[in-house]
């Protein structure tokens, strides 16, 4: 009964592994790809928000210019109003003095002018002149008063025009501030991603240096590599994908599936990298060629540094350690420290 249950579990595991969407590559190279993709997206966001910010700034400048022109008009109108008021006040003062004199003299000044008439015609002429003089004085004052009223009305209209623009000015200012804050946020995010990209690249470079430094000085390899696990499915190939590098291949397989030495050689490095490869093993096959096997747990590894292994010898089991979303083997081939496509070597 127990054998049947275990057999069923094994079949289910193999079915899951065979599904196309079961992509498991999440080591340092995969983290670098994700970072570079995020960086690309943030750069696009910055490009879009920069264009929007520039557009909003232009609109803001347009409104500010309109308000500036209105302020200039208001300033000139207020100056004109002050000048008119000053002139009106002088005219009013003079008119009041005339009226006061007429009142105090009982209109005798104008009466005397009329009484000095030498004839009826002369009287009417003098009368028309007096009335015309008073009308002219009154007209002058009325004209200045009308002009002042008109100017005050214009000022109110312009101030109302300015008041209509003030909410728009406020809105444009808020839009600029909002987009500027968004721009600053994206720039900050870009800076973090660039730092993360730099750190991840450094980690990959350090891994490659560690692999390059580890050497047995022997030549046991045949030159032809064996598929490094029992079956499994290629879930992530070697090479650049959407501008992102992947320095090996990922082979999805069930937990505990055997991992074999792809060729004869000497184990030159076993190392734990919890944030990336998990626990990994490097074998030197000679002539500058090495192979790397990653994402195991330490207890699954059956070899140690210095061990000589034969082609096809079991060296570990498939795990799910490090940056990994499911059990799989990350397998690399390096020629003099340079990652190569393992599919070009496997027969």
Provide key terms for this protein.
alpha+beta; Helix Hairpins; Glucose Permease (Domain IIA); 2 domains; two-stranded antiparallel sheet; 16% strand; rod-shaped; disordered N terminus; signal; PcsB_CC; Cell_wall_metabolism_enzyme; Peptidoglycan DD-metalloendopeptidase family protein; M23ase_b-sheet_dom
Describe the structure.
The chain has 347 residues and is of the alpha+beta class. Helices cover 56% and strands 16% of the residues. The protein is built from four helices and ten strands; from the N terminus they run ααααββββββββββ. Strands 1, 2, 4, 5, 6, 7, 9 and 10 form an eight-stranded antiparallel beta sheet that branches. Strands 3-8 form a two-stranded antiparallel sheet. Strand 5 and strand 6 form a beta hairpin. The two termini are 39 Å apart. Mean pLDDT is 75; it is low at 1-26. InterPro entries: Cell_wall_metabolism_enzyme (IPR050570), Dup_hybrid_motif (IPR011055), M23ase_b-sheet_dom (IPR016047), PcsB_CC (IPR057309). This is Peptidoglycan DD-metalloendopeptidase family protein.
Topology:
Layout (H helix, E strand, L loop, with lengths): L1 H17 L9 H77 L3 H8 L4 H94 L19 E4 L12 E4 L5 E3 L4 E9 L4 E9 L2 E8 L11 E2 L4 E4 L10 E8 L2 E3 L7
């Amino acid at each position: 009964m127990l054998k049947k249950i275990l057999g069923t579990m094994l079949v289910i595991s193999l079915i899951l592994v065979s599904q196309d969407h079961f992509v498991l590559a999440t080591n340092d190279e995969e983290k670098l790809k994700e970072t570079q993709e995020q960086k690309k997206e943030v750069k696009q966001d910055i490009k879009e928000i920069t264009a929007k910010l520039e557009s909003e700034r232009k609109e803001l400048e347009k409104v500010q210019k309109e308000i500036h022109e209105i302020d200039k008009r208001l300033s000139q109108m207020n100056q004109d109003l002050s000048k008119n008021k000053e002139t009106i006040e002088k005219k009013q003062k003079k008119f009041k003095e005339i009226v006061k004199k007429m009142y105090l003299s009982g209109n005798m000044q104008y009466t005397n002018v009329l009484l000095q008439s030498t004839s009826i015609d002369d009287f009417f002429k003098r009368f028309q002149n007096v009335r015309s003089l008073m009308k002219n004085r009154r007209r002058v004052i009325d004209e200045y008063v009308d002009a002042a009223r008109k100017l005050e009305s214009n000022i109110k209209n312009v101030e109302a025009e300015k008041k209509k623009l003030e909410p728009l000015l406020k809105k444009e200012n808020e839009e600029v501030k909002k987009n500027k804050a968004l721009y600053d946020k994206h720039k900050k995010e870009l800076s973090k991603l660039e730092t993360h990209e730099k750190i991840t690249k450094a980690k990959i470079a350090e891994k490659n240096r560690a692999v390059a430094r580890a050497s047995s000085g022997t030549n046991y390899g045949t030159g032809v590599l064996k598929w490094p696990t029992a079956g499994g499915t290629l879930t992530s190939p070697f090479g650049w994908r959407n501008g992102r590098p992947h320095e090996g291949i990922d082979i999805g397989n069930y937990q505990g599936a055997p991992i074999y030495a792809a060729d004869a050689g000497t184990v030159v490095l076993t190392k734990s990298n919890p944030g990336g490869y998990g626990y990994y093993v490097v074998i030197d096959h000679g002539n500058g060629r090495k192979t790397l096997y990653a994402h195991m747990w330490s207890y699954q590894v059956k070899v140690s540094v210095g061990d000589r292994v034969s082609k096809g010898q079991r060296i570990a089991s498939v795990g799910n350690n490090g940056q990994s979303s499911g059990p799989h083997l990350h397998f690399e081939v390096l020629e003099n420290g340079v990652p190569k496509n393992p599919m070009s070597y496997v027969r």
